[in-house]
Amino acid sequence: MQNDSGTNVQKLINTAKTLVAGDKGLLALDESISTCNKRFAKYGIPQTEEFRRAWRELIVTTSGLSESISGAILFDETIRQTKKDGTPFITIIIDSGIIPGIKVDIGAKEMAGHPGEKITEGLDGLRARLAEYAQMGVRFAKWRAVIAMDDGIPSWGCINANAHALARYAALCQEAGLVPVVEPEVLMKGVHAIEQCGEVTAKVLRTVFDQLYIQRVMLEGMILKTNMVLPGLTCPKQETVNDVADATLQCLLQTVPAAVPAITFLSGGQSASLASDRLNAMNIRFKSRAPWALSFSFGRAIQQPALDIWQGREANVSAAQQALYHRAKCNRDARRGKYDGEKGVV
Fold it and tell me: 87, exposed or middle or buried, with CB in 10 Å at 0-12, 13-18, 19+?
C-alpha cells in the first residue's frame, strides 16, 4: 500500500467491511450506454441520454434505499449526471448514506486466438482514471471478466489472461485507496450441468486468487463478486434452490481464502425472485459457518421490476420506486435467511 503508516490499509479494510455491514448489499447501477439502450428498446423508451438520466434519477432518489443498499456501482456517464435541479447524482448517493463505486473496465472484447472467448480491457490509463474518481468521492471500483462455457472452452489462456487483468486492476485500486470488487463471472448461457459450472468456477477462482497473491493485493481490502454455481440456462436438469446453495458453497469453501471479507453474488440473468431465493438458502444453510459475508451485488434482479413499471413514464415513477425499494429489501432479508418469496418477508 502507498501509505507506510498503514492509514491506507485500514481505510480499505474499513470500507470493505462497511459495504457488507448490517446485512446490506450492493446495487449494480453500472450498465453501459449500449446495455441500457437495449433494455429501453424492449419497452419503446427513447434511447437518449435524457431518458437514461431520468431512469437513474428515479433510482438514486428512491426513499429508504439505504436501508438495504450499502454501495452503488455507477458507470462513467452516470457519475457525471445530475438531477433535473442540477444536484449531482454522486452527492445524492453520499448524502443518503450509500457509498459510491464505479465500474472501470471498458468491456469484454473478442480475445485474439481464442474463438468464442473474451478478454476484458481497460488497464491503459487506469491509474489516472482511478485518481479522478477518488477525487470525486468514489470509494470502491468494479472490474468484470466473463468466462463462457462451451465445447473446448474456457481455455487456460482465457482464464489466465482475465485473472491477470483482474489482479492488476485490483492492485491499482488499492494503490489509489479504492476497494476493488473483483468480478470473475462464469456465464449462465449454455447446456452445461451444475457440476461442470462448479468445476469451471473453481478453476477460475483458484487462478484469480493465485494472480491476486502474485500482484500483492491485500485480500482483507477487497470484495469478491462472482456467479452462483448453476446449471446452464438450457440444461434439461434445473436443480433446486438448496442444491444450488450447496454446490455454490462447496465450491467457494474450497477456493476463496477466509481473509476475504465478503462474497457478493451477481444475478447474471436470474429472475429477481429466484436470485433472492438462492441467496436466502445460502444464508440459511451456511451463514453460521461461512468465513465471509454472503451478500449481493445485483443489477437486473433489483432494477427489472421497477423498469417494468416505469417504462419511461413520469406518472409511473412513484410505483417504480416502491418496486425498487421492495426488491432491495427482499435481498436484505435474504442475507438474513428470512426471505419468504413473493408471499412477503418474515
Answer: middle
What is this structure's pTM?
Answer: 0.95
Q: List C-alpha distances in Å: 304 to 38, 110, 272.
A: 13, 28, 8
Number of residues written out for the chain:
346
* CA atoms of 133 and 331, how far apart (whole Å): 28
User: What confidence tier does 343 reach under pLDDT thresholds 50, 70, 90?
Assistant: low
- Contact in structure between 245 and 285 (CB atoms under 8 Å): yes
Among all residues, which ones are annotated catalytic?
183, 225
Domain limits of the chain? 7-339
Give the span between the Cα atoms of 199 and 215, in whole angstroms: 25
Phi, psi of 100 (to 5 degrees): -80, 140
Name the fold adopted by 7-339.
TIM Barrel (3.20.20)
Q: What is the pLDDT of residue 2?
A: 43
> Nearest-CA neighbor of 101 among 67, 72, 134?
72
- Using CA atoms, how far residue 65 sits from 191, 276, 294, in Å, is 37, 17, 20
260 by DSSP, 3-state: which? coil
